[in-house]
Write a structure and sequence with these properties.
7 helices; globular; alpha/beta; eight-stranded mixed β-sheet
């Protein structure tokens, strides 16, 4: 093979392999749906910008679950991570993979959901992602023995839109978001715990965008059912967030009325996405607060 031909073949191979390599930080990459995802008409490669490192997934029609296993597993619980992105993109490189690796360091199996984006053209902005989330929970339960986890100790953690998705997954587990496609869908979509971090889109003021009135006087959206399988939660927010911390406060109040254990941390001066702001020393312990709470809850 000539050097020129070798270069052409190598480049072509790289173009195919690179998207896989970018997800191969994980030990395993799972395609969630055996055929087309609900409502989809095509099964195609997910779209990212190849010229920008760690770019968000911009178009996802084939949602994936990235499995991360710890070197030293000390817990049989599992944390399923939902990245943010306004339901328009999925920031799994920065609000997913680093979080999963944090949980690995603490001895937990973790998984990152690369859910479908952008938002559906009609209906609730979260619906396709919610379908993927319920399917992801069921996949982890169906494969609990394989991953060395307890199917009754699977919880969810999310950020921004992914935090909204976390809340929906936690409080609406008895709502069937799609028609069953195989035996995995016979399993419950309930989770053992939830960690919503700066949730967006949970208040009537800001149900599809940032709050217009800072969340003042707003109620939780009607789509949050808080069914009888709603689990304990640890809520994390900043008081300078354009997605009002009153969303987290209202969730806390609702859980308290239901007698469900809940912890709430609101960091002074912390904006949306404060996990990326190194000049906020008061908020840098946010993830350790989540870990301490999880241990307190027996996981």
């Amino acid at each position: 093979m000539t050097n020129k031909l070798y270069s052409i073949v190598f480049f072509a191979t790289l173009c195919v392999v690179l998207p896989i390599m970018r997800a191969s930080f994980a030990q395993e990459v799972i395609e969630l749906w055996p055929n087309l995802a609900p409502g989809e008409t095509v099964r195609e490669s997910n779209v990212e910008d190849p010229n920008v490192p760690n770019t968000p997934a911009q178009v996802v029609t084939t949602p994936q679950l990235l499995i991360f296993k710890p070197d030293n597993q000390t817990s049989d619980a599992c944390v399923l991570v939902f990245p943010g992105g306004g339901f328009n993109v999925c920031f799994y490189h920065n609000e997913g993979i680093p979080v999963a690796k944090y949980w690995n360091e603490k001895g937990y199996v973790s998984a990152v959901l690369v859910y479908r984006v952008p938002r559906p053209k009609s209906g609730p902005i979260y619906m396709s992602a919610f379908q993927d989330a319920q399917r992801a929970v069921r996949h982890m339960k169906a494969n609990a023995d394989k991953y060395g986890i307890d199917p009754n100790k699977i919880g969810v953690q999310g950020f921004s839109a992914g935090s909204c998705l976390t809340v929906h997954t936690a409080v609406n587990s008895m709502s069937q978001s799609y028609k069953p496609v195989d035996e995995i869908d016979d399993l419950s979509a309930s989770v053992a715990f939830a960690i919503p971090v700066y949730p967006a889109y949970v208040l009537t003021d800001g149900a599809t965008d940032a709050n217009a009135n800072k969340g003042e006087g707003a109620d939780l959206i009607d789509d949050l059912h808080f069914d009888e399988q709603t689990p304990p939660m640890c809520l994390i927010h900043g008081d300078a967030d354009i997605y009002s911390p009153l969303g987290s406060v209202e969730i806390y109040k609702k859980l308290r009325k239901m007698g469900i254990s809940c912890e709430l941390h609101v960091f002074a001066g912390a904006p949306h996405g404060f996990m990326f702001w190194d000049d906020l020393p008061n908020a840098q312990t946010w993830q350790d607060r989540c870990y301490a709470w999880l241990k307190k809850m027996g996981y």
